[in-house]
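Work Package 3 (structural annotation) set out to generate three-dimensional models for the target panel prioritized at the project kickoff. During this period the team completed the workflow that converts sequence records into discrete structure tokens, so that structures can be stored uniformly alongside our sequence database. As a representative example, we reproduce one entry of 224 residues exactly as it appears in the project archive.
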Amino acid sequence: MATRKVQTTQLAVFFEGVQKQFRNLDSRNPAAWGPLPRYLFCACISMFVVGALWYLWLQDSDAELQAERAKEVRLRDDYSKKLAQAVNLEALKKQREQVLQYVTQMEKQLPSKAEMDALLSDINQAGIGRSLQFDLFRPGQVSVKEYYAELPIAVRVTGRYNDIGLFTSDIAYLSRIVTLNNLTLLPARDGSLSLDATAKTFRYLDPEEVAAQRQAAAPKGGKK
């Protein structure tokens, strides 16, 4: 019993000392506090700092996680597209070959600059062969495009309706590309008809024109 009393007395003294350290604490002068309040205060500050840093780190990690998830979605979409392309690779190659063949065929229908006179003669002969009278046959100004040159020709022919129809059909079947635009059909003398149209033909660009096109497309030098 005596030993238990001594222990109880020691505990009471200990708690009394602890309580004494927490009495009359001056919030403006923590340095004057007892050891236990100072240690608890430092521990609370440390926990607060660690908690704040942990929260901020988790926020950054969450933003990074969301960015990585969005990146994953983009990569999955890109993978799916590339996988579809890989699966259809042979079909795409065949389509490409067909397109190249078509382009080559169309290019063969474009005359060179040296062949333009022969093409103009073919158009003229198409009209004469159908007994049409040329009242106007006037080549216009050549318009140079990115890959080709376009030559408009003002045409006026007079003749019978059937002959004019056959003439337009002959133009469509020329070996070179010729289109008839802005067609106007009017009655003429002696029951004949007059056809006004703009025939457009196309040709390759010659090396000088290609060089001029590239020079015009090149970025100009000089200070920005």
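Residues 35-87 form the longest helix (53 residues).
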